[in-house]
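Ticket #4471: complex job returned nothing on first submit. Input attached below:
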Amino acid sequence: MSAAPELPALDIDEVRRVMEDYFERGWTDGLPVMPVTESSLAEFLAQTNRDPGEVLLAMPHLNRECTVRLAAINAAMAGCRPEYFPVVLAAWSALEAENYVTRGIWQSTTGTAPMLLVNGPVRERIGLNSKGNVFGSGFRANATIGRAIRLTAINAFGLRPGELDQATQGNPAKYTACIAENEEESPWPAFHVEHGFAPGDSTVTALTMRSVAHIEARHTTVPEQLALDLADTIRRTGALIHETISACIALGPEHAHLFARAGWDKDELRRFVYEHAVNTREALAAAGKDAVSGKTRWRLSSAHAEAVPDSTPDADPVRVLGSEEAVQIVVAGAHNAGVSAVIETFGPRGGAPAIALVR
Amino acid sequence: MLERAGVPAVSICTEAFVVPARAMADAYGVPGFEFVTIPHPIASLAPEEIESNVGRVIADVVRILTEG
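Support reply: We reran it on our side without changes. The output follows.
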């Protein structure tokens, strides 16, 4: 935008009246939303052969459900183009399959956000960014698809902060969080292919996450050193509410190629991280997390009245990952520096990721 | 849920969760549902401090069980 851009003419009073009306109804995330009419909604609904009344996801504990129509209204309000809607629908399928949302995780004090990972040709088709600034701003498809999920959480499920959303702090990804894999600059098969889909399939993976931790590693060409930097970030005691955690490593292309040049594939990196994401008993004790509660199984000090030994009392050091599958690996970002990230996904599990096909 | 199953029950929450507790009661169609509230937090309290909180609210618990 220049210092004195020529602005389009329109009835600004009418636009502001509509914007203010949406704010007054509580239908926003704090930012202005795109007004929706039945005619603009019809363009979204035309992108799918699913019935507008079909329930996409129910939260019986809240007595609320999200239909295809409600998802479309919120996608339109988020600023999506109609052709993004099949990706939004797949996101809801993946979130349902992940099985955290339906159990109240969006109400939790932990304050998770749903990170979406998109693979396949749909990335190119709708302009999803997988390269520079992949976690940042600047790309309409990424920004609005992630936001469509948040607005639906607010409007269809009533998950407003301080009411049904009890997040102590939340995290910035609660505005929007949608990335695509940089398949073109990855030395390995794409994430969805690794999990049994065809390269020509487009998929959305749901990753309920707590934070994105940045890894600076411009210093090395030794794969073990880089892998230890990643493992050290994953094992941090501050991440431990349960005994075990899960994580998704988003490798910058430079780091992915460093591993590939050394002959490592994703499984080898996964195995190394699983073996090395550990805390010594001494480190756990120093943080007051060397035992678990006999009631909640949450980590606490062995001096606590509820303390019982954790499930591997003879292990020292102690693993934070319950299985190799508890760490997933994707390639994302620009091929321009030794930077990666650990997406701290929520939960103690180590099963297969929740991936849904874009139809 | 327990009361719908015929079991008298009292919900206790800390002051930090009064607003979401009311929102949940609304979602279940029982907007006037009465809670007993205790000071926040509880997770980091010593057992004696928990006991002292119990002493402060036990009369309310009995009242809701017998009147409500």
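Chain B has one domain: 11-67. Closing as resolved unless it happens again.
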